[in-house]
Specification:
There is one protein chain. With 238 residues, the protein is an alpha/beta fold. It has a single domain, classed as 3-Layer(aba) Sandwich (Rossmann fold), CATH 3.40.50. The protein is built from 8 helices and 7 strands, in the order βαβαβαβαβααβααβ. It has a 7-stranded parallel sheet with strand order 3-2-1-4-5-6-7, sandwiched between helices. Helix 1 crosses helix 8, helix 3 packs parallel to helix 4 and helix 4 runs parallel beside helix 6.
Length: 238
């Protein structure tokens, strides 16, 4: 870890923290001094991220959890409230990408999984952690979106529609809390990034042709140190 720790003393929760942008963001937050709560389904993958954080001198807590299971978010929030009074940072990185197909051929099971992961769990997380975020001195929520949510594209309707709903939830929440607390909400579009999800969507693409997740993570940490207006939205370049 470096000597500069701008987020020291803050507590952050990152969903989808076992790989890709979520893992890179969790590691970057820890390097910046935050204690990071790592949330994802796969225990071994979470432990690997935690080992990397601890090896570099940071601190973290793993919370293996399937966000789509009934009452899972409520149980998570109750456990965290039992240990911390406030939550300074919430990064919503978990997402599920259904198979890319024409709208008429969307698999109902996959579509439902995308709705539960990308939309239903988002509302549950915002609702469950709202009291802790409001207790923070400068609570921040960062939601990771996709360009297909705002700009529909052929064969992406299953995923794009869930990200459009995701954006709407975050933007509505931003407007609701704007004048009631210092809490601020931002939506970040990572753009083309070297992740497992992108590899599935673009199997012929050379991984080295797009930026690594660490670039997005670095921008998120930087954004958290800025005095952005709630409802802020940006696309990460690179």
């Amino acid at each position: 870890m470096t000597d500069t720790k701008p987020l020291e003393g803050q507590t952050a929760l990152v969903t989808g923290a076992s790989r890709g942008i979520g893992a890179a963001t969790a590691i970057a937050l820890a390097k910046a001094g935050a204690h990071v709560i790592l949330v994802a389904r796969k225990v071994k993958a979470l432990e690997a991220v935690e080992d990397e954080i601890h090896a570099a001198g940071g601190t973290s807590t793993i919370a293996p959890l399937d966000l789509t299971e009934p009452d899972s978010v409520a149980r998570l929030a109750a456990a965290i409230r039992g240990r911390w009074d406030a939550l300074d940072i919430l990064v919503l990185s978990a997402a599920y990408l259904p198979e890319l197909t024409p709208l008429s051929q969307i698999d109902p099971k996959q579509f439902n999984q995308a709705l539960l992961t990308n939309v239903v769990s988002t509302q549950a997380l915002l609702s469950a952690f709202d009291p802790m975020l409001r207790k923070a001195k400068n609570g921040r929520v960062i939601g990771l979106t996709s360009s297909v949510g705002a700009s529909p594209r052929a064969f992406w309707s299953a995923y794009g529609s869930t990200k459009a709903a995701f954006d709407n939830l975050l933007e509505s929440y931003a407007a609701e809390v704007e004048k009631l607390s210092p809490l601020r909400v931002a939506i970040v579009d990572p753009g083309a990034t070297r992740t497992e999800m992108r590899a599935r969507a673009y199997p012929g693409e050379k991984p080295e042709s797009v930026k690594p997740p660490e670039v997005v993570a670095s921008r998120i940490v930087q954004l958290l140190q800025e005095d952005f207006e709630t409802g802020h939205r940006e696309r990460v370049k690179g």
